[in-house]
Design brief:
Order of helices and strands of chain A: EHHEHHEHHEE
Strand order of the largest sheet of chain A: 3-2-1-4-5
Distance between the termini of chain B: 63 Å
Strand order of the largest sheet of chain B: 1-4
Largest sheet of chain A: 5 strands, parallel
Radius of gyration of chain A: 15 Å
Low-confidence stretches of chain A: none
Number of strands of chain A: 5
Helix content of chain B: 55-70%
Largest interface: A-B, 42 and 31 residues
Mean pLDDT of chain A: 91
Order of helices and strands of chain B: HEHHEEHHHHHHHEHHHH
Structural class of chain A: alpha/beta
Oligomer: heterodimer
Number of strands of chain B: 4
Number of helices of chain A: 6
Mean pLDDT of chain B: 87
Helix content of chain A: 40-55%
Largest sheet of chain B: 2 strands, parallel
Distance between the termini of chain A: 36 Å
């Protein structure tokens, strides 16, 4: 039992579809994200994402080491993903992800973070997550 | 005629594997749980044989040991956040102790001049008399109930009084270990409450009932009242543990009475957890605790009734303020997201 509202993890493919206007599922994902933001505002859910995925979207041009450290210490809540809190990846998470038998390292890391942070609900376009006991967010089809 | 082969058969869908089947087990989790249970046993043994830790430093050490148990095997970043939290936590208590201690001497402005606020001797006593139709609640309760022998209500009053020194800190430690988000929510309310209380201690130093009746102090507002808040607690076999180094930090102040932090702390904990408590009878039961606390404080001559009522009002105000601020924060972030979306 958690005192917090349920966390919804925005997986890398979903984040990418929301951020990228050329993505074929962009409109569907934006509509779903708007709904999630509404729920966040009413404190019905908490929005989270794996820190590696979120940082790449916050700074698509990349960051130098100092920038990465600053982002690691405090992520400014700005832009379209302002309500999303990063789940910071530590060395132990990367080691655990490397020890899984999942081929895709990004999927492996996301599964580790879901497991360690008690996340059950995931917004994703990646079919790999369908194989696991997770509540996948149904996305409207335009 | 149907045969066995025609009969519809239900084939349950194959269950999807849980994350535990693919993600390696986190070995530190059982270690943390074992350590926390061991700590609990140790704490209870200490309570039985050495007493309830009540001074700030000992409580801080007890909380620190618990946090070590609860954070074993967590990431370096989590430890870093914990370190920052601990510094903020200790700064809050030191600022509180120092401000409270300085309250009766007034406030010095860069050593150039000192502003000393007048001591409230009769003001709040008169408010109590107004509220209770000309009676002094402290005097009435002690005259009717205080006896040489210790009665059951002395045990209730003394034990309730002593919870003040550990109850909020236990809540903070548990929140720290379970949900950093909830810990942050709690500490914002708690620190604001302490800040407002310190401000009032400085601008409104107040003579408490025990002092008002003590001939040594010379106020003589009524006859001398008994002051032995812990006697009911000690009667059931407990002691209070204080270590010598508390003297280095604690700046006790007999006239830091308005508002009552005993009453405020007794309300802030139930009020914080109220949204998660669903049955109405249970809500009523937990809200009985601050009422018992205030009644105990009045009976034990530690506070005027109005001290407790003002403490409750400040607690309510603090919740109102932070609920509003947090709602505003969520709205701002949601607005930023909508503005950036196509």
């Amino acid at each position: 039992m958690s005192m917090d509202p349920p966390k919804v993890l925005l997986e890398a493919t979903f984040l990418d579809a929301v951020a990228n206007a050329d993505h074929p599922r962009h409109d569907d994902c934006v509509a779903a994200y708007r709904e999630l933001v509404q729920q966040y505002e009413l404190e019905q859910v908490l929005l989270v994402a794996v820190s590696d995925h979120l940082r790449d979207l916050d700074h698509p041009q990349g960051l130098d080491t100092l920038g990465k450290v600053k982002w690691f210490v405090h992520r400014p809540s700005v832009g379209m993903f302002a309500p999303v809190d990063p789940l910071y990846v530590g060395g132990q998470h990367r080691r655990a992800a490397a020890a899984t038998k999942v081929d895709d390292p990004s999927v492996a890391l996301t599964l580790v973070m879901c497991s360690r942070y008690g996340v059950r609900r995931v917004a994703t376009l990646h079919e790999a997550y369908e194989a696991f006991d997770l509540d996948l967010l149904p996305l409207p089809v335009a | 005629m149907s045969t066995a082969t025609d009969a519809p058969t239900f084939v349950p869908p194959s269950p999807r594997p849980g994350l535990g089947t693919v993600v390696p087990h986190e070995w530190f989790r059982p270690v943390r749980i074992t350590l926390m249970w061991t700590y609990l046993v140790g704490y209870l043994l200490w309570l039985k044989y050495r007493g309830l830790t009540v001074d700030r430093v000992s409580v801080a050490i007890a909380v620190g040991i618990f946090l070590l148990c609860a954070f074993v095997g967590r990431t370096w970043r989590t430890w870093g956040v914990l370190l920052v939290d601990c510094i903020a936590y200790c700064t809050m208590w030191v600022a509180y102790e120092k401000t409270r201690g300085a309250a009766d001497d007034g406030v010095s402005f860069f050593g150039l001049f000192r502003v000393k606020f007048p001591l409230q001797v009769e003001t709040f006593r008169n408010v109590d008399r107004f509220l209770f139709f000309g009676n002094d609640p402290n005097v009435v309760l002690q005259d009717h109930f205080w006896e040489r022998t210790i009665r059951w209500y002395d045990v209730v009053a003394g034990s309730t009084y002593m919870t003040h020194f550990v109850f909020p800190m236990i809540v903070m430690a548990v929140l720290w270990a379970t949900s950093h988000r909830q810990w942050t929510r709690f500490i914002k309310r708690f620190a604001t409450l302490l800040g407002v209380a310190c401000f009032l201690f400085v601008v409104m130093p107040t003579v408490p009932p025990w002092m008002a009746g003590d001939p040594d102090w010379g106020y003589n507002l009524f006859h001398e009242l008994h002051r032995n808040a812990g006697r009911g607690f000690y009667h059931i076999g407990f002691e209070s543990f204080r270590d010598g180094y508390k003297l280095a930090l604690s700046n006790g102040n007999g006239v830091a009475a308005m508002p009552s932090l005993h009453a405020s702390f007794a309300l802030i904990v139930p009020a914080f957890f109220l949204p998660w408590i669903k049955p109405k009878w249970l809500k009523a039961l937990v809200l009985l605790f601050p009422v018992v606390m205030l009644t105990s404080l009045v009976y034990l001559a530690e506070h005027w009734v109005i001290d407790g009522l003002v403490g409750w009002a400040i607690t309510g105000g603090v919740f109102w303020f932070w609920n509003r601020m947090e709602r505003r924060g969520r709205r701002t972030k949601a607005h930023r997201a909508r503005m950036a979306l196509p």
